[in-house]
Amino acid sequence: MTYTIVVGWTPNIFGRAALTAAAEQARLRSGGRLLVVNATRGDSYVDERYATGSELEGLHQELRELDVPADVHQAMGSDVGDLLIEAAEQADAAMIVLGIRHRTPVGKLLMGSVAQRVLLGARCPVLAVKPPEDG
Amino acid sequence: MDSFSLLWDGLANAVTPVNLLYALIGVALGTFIGVLPGIGPAMAVALLLPVTYGLDPVPSFIMFAGIYYGGMYGGSTTSILLNTPGESASVMTALEGNKMAKRGRAAQALATAAIGSFIAGTIGTLLLAFFAPALADVAVDIGAPSYLAVIVLAMVLVTSVLGSSQLRGFIALFIGLTIGLVGLDLNTGQARLSFDQPLLADRLDIVVVAVGIFALGEALWVAAHLRRTPLEVIPVGQPWMGRDDWRRSWKPWLRGTALGFPFGAIPAGGAETPTFLSYILERRLARKGHEFGDGAIEGVAGPEAANNASAAGTFVPLLALGLPVTATAAIMLAALRNFGIQPGPQLMVEQSDLVWTLLASLLIGNTFLLVLNLPMAPMWAKLLRIPRPQLYAGILFFASLGAYTTNQQPFDVFLLLVFGLLGLMMRRFALPVLPLILGVILGPMMETEFREALALSGGSVTGLVNEPLAVVVYVVVALALIIPRIVARTRGTEPEDQERPEEVVRR
Question: How many angstroms separate the CA atoms of A6 and A70, rounded?
């Protein structure tokens, strides 16, 4: 029985926090494995949250150090949250792990959020973690 | 040096706080637009044309000059950091520039592009101040037959020499000529191609055509290809150059200027040819030949100087003959006409204040460009994070506003949509845009000269070739059409460069 955990990953501190938390969860279960998803809307010329060559290498390095079985998946679509939910459903995932940002209610009002979309739409439990640096 | 004392007076006129502000706005907007792939200086000038209706000619031209030079420079930033040329003139910059950036020399590549642009633009403007009046003196004696021949030359060169396919070029040119025919006949007042529409009989406004083709066409094209894998942008700090970079850059700058200015000034349209030639030249000359293809600074310095020098060069035929050879110059000609100014040999005499102030403003804009861009390059690169839907929503807003304000007619907004669809189709079938715009703007001029020549000769065809200059120009036209074919036949290959700028840009 595999226990797949989908990680919403970006090449920054939020992605790292999510990855670390997801690896901890995976080690607790037998057959625990990660599905690292990195997604973009692909509608700007540059999206620094979409990993490129060297960042993907860094991710694989990190995964080897964490020593959990993992797959990496990159996706592009109109809504990054929906892409995560879709990936979770296809992999029959038991959990989704996300790194989230500290935000005030007003900030939330102004800025859309992938985390919110996932929390509302996912069928499985969602674990949201904040990176230690982000107060 | 009479020209230079006049230029000095122009400088004195141009340096007022308000004019400097417009120069600053123009350079900032131009760079903004140049940085974004797919949006060139021609589109920027077309979009901002309505803004200048409320301004005097001098500040608006100061702004346009800033946009033109800024757009020329801005393209180099994306070429270097992203390997995506912002406009076709920076295609050559991308070859070496991006490789330099990948080797961690992005700061030097940006610096040599900015300083090279500044030097080439300054020298180019001084050359312009020298040559434009001289050409205008000669041009006063040019008769209708020769003028017609020069227009034909410009059309043939732009259509057949540039771009990947002569057939596509001529298709675009003839679409443009047809659009130029719509409306009342300038001589007899008969309505042509107006389909009994009084609004069409009024003739089409070049602004509506240009904004439709450039802005709306591009927006529709982007909408049809919205999602693309994001590109890897190379992070960069403050641009700077070491002593070795200076030593290796200054000669390519001067050589690029020497290539760029004449190619801008002859009606061969645009900066593609001189940037390409400059790149080839630098690669041949490079002592460290092995570094070419691996990020040689000469390969950035030369083409970048060439494209700004050619931007200066395009003002020579524009001011002295009233003949635009690039899309941007075509829009500027339309803008001049909106102010009731008819460029041509008389302009230097009748509006000499304006001309010299314009030339001085080119120098000012160029200086701002250096001041603005050297420290702000990292900020410009951030523009690339703007999501396309938001960006093009803004462009569409200005496009519609511009189309409406030309005549305060809702019909013009409808026309904008029609030309937008035409622009989309042209991109779909890889038809170049420049021949079309030139066709629209030069077509009516050509017709006027043609009829005048025939009227003078009483309808005899010999009236078209009764000036020696006209005959010489027609021979050049024939050679321009024949030589590539002969070369192709003897070599057994296609007469095109391996580089096909449009396609690189369109991707």
Answer: 10
Measured CA to CA in angstroms, residue A112 lies from A7, A101, A106, B399 at distances of 19, 12, 11, 28
Question: pLDDT, tens digit, for every residue of B170-216?
Answer: 999 999 999 988 888 877 878 888 787 878 887 888 888 888 988 89
pTM, rounded to two decimals: 0.80
Contact A40, A79 (CB under 8 A): no
Question: Which CA distances in Å does B41 have to B48, B219, B227, B252, B328?
Answer: 10, 15, 25, 25, 6
List chain A residues with pLDDT less than 50: none
For the residues B398-425, what does the mean pLDDT come to? 89
Tokens of B20: 């400097």
Question: What is the least distance, in Å, from the CA of A76 to any CA of chain B?
Answer: 7
Residue B506 confidence (pLDDT): 38
The 3-state DSSP class for residue A38 equals strand
Q: Which two tokens stand for residue B182?
A: 């719509």
CB pair distance less than 8 Å for B230 and A47: yes
**How high is the mean pLDDT of chain B?**
81
Helix axes B217-224, B388-407, angle to 10 degrees: 160
**Which of A12, A45, A48 to substitute to test the interface with B, most B CBs within 10 Å?**
A45
Note the Cα B196 to chain centre separation in Å: 35
Residue B227 neighbours by CB under 8 Å, 6+ apart: A41, A42, A43, A76, A77, A78
Q: Which of B147, B97, B31 is nearest to B380 (CA)?
A: B31
Q: Could you write out the DSSP letters of every residue in B233-246?
A: PPP--S----HHHH
How large is the ipTM? 0.72
Is residue B362 predicted with pLDDT exceeding 90? no
Residues of chain A with Cβ-Cβ distance to B386 below 8 Å are: 44
